[in-house]
Amino acid sequence: MAKITLDNLAHSYLAKPSSEDDFALKELNHVWGDGEAYALLGSSGCGKSTLLNIISGLLHPSQGRILFDDIDVTQATTSARNIAQVFQFPVVYDTMTVRDNLAFPLKNRGAEPAYIARRVQEIGAMIGMEAELDKRARGLTADAKQKISLGRGMVREDVNALLFDEPLTVIDPHMKWELRTQLKSLHHEFGHTMIYVTHDQTEALTFADKVVVMYDGRVVQIGTPQELFERPAHTFVGYFIGSPGMNVIPASVSGSQAQVHGTAVPLSQNFGTLAGKVELGVRPEFVTLTEGEGLPVTIRRVEDVGRHKIVRAQLFGKDLNIVAAEGQEISPDMTRVTFMPDHVNVYVDDWRSEGKAA
């Protein structure tokens, strides 16, 4: 287990980068706690796998350092860093049995045979492959092979960190849920530092203690699922987290009041007078349809998804999403919306602005 420090870290795949835009991973300075479970979350191309490969030692950064427990490992090999990494697609030895695949990392390090046998049996049970332990990997399905890869990554108890690069891509949906649960259980039992790369918000939010949201090569927010939902630090976080994502509405702000096309919107804090690109961020869960007050909307359609209804509307020509209770009746007279002031975030040039008590 290790505390991981990213010190002035950045990376470009170009030999001579000339501007910030040439960097796939823009400058990072973060400390990730020993024994915590992190998920790197973002869309394709945002820098998640680049960062993971720098942490693992498969890639050397263009600048900066990476430290494990305050020891500089920037130039250290992957094996010297004592990490286990599981990749997006299964990496197994086809000619070996499942048992031998799982045992390989332990045999390679000279572990005692009795310990190897016990540990392989435990991991076989964890990944649901006890009955296949003596089968050769060659004839197994892709998702079974990926379970072997996961198991081989988890079989060692002495690693500094466990790194997962979208490991459940080829796993069927039901097994995904089971394996995420097992990974979380493993983390609680052994306290490994875990870093899990994914573009799936459900995977990230159910697995991690803290989610690291990346956008355009930057870490834009690190927080708990609740923090990401309630106080997105960047408009991308609000858009990417949640289904539907956060509504982003152009506005002007003065003091504890916003103006949207001349209609006043109360805020719970005082923001002074803001300049730049000013927007309000409001989750669909905190938008209320009304008949007589608020901002004018036009309802386009209502989607009943079982647990609640999603109302697709338009506000001054822009899409607006509203989450209504399953039993709520949506009448034609509901042509206005209000926002819960405590749940309205204010953004300037895409970054959340902190107000003061009103």
TrEMBL record:
Gene3D superfamilies linked to this entry: 2.40.50.100, Nucleic acid-binding proteins (2.40.50.140), P-loop containing nucleotide triphosphate hydrolases (3.40.50.300)
Lineage of origin: Bacteria, Pseudomonadati, Pseudomonadota, Alphaproteobacteria, Rhodobacterales
ABC transporter domain span: 4-241
Record InterPro entries: AAA+_ATPase, ABC_transporter-like_ATP-bd, ABC_transpr_FbpC, ABC_transpr_MalK/UgpC-like, Mo/tungstate-bd_C_term_dom, NA-bd_OB-fold, OB_MalK-like, P-loop_NTPase
Organism: Jannaschia donghaensis
Full protein name: sn-glycerol-3-phosphate import ATP-binding protein UgpC
Keyword field contains Transport: yes
SUPFAM superfamilies named among the record's database cross-references: MOP-like (SSF50331), P-loop containing nucleoside triphosphate hydrolases (SSF52540)
CDD domains, A to Z: ABC_Carb_Solutes_like
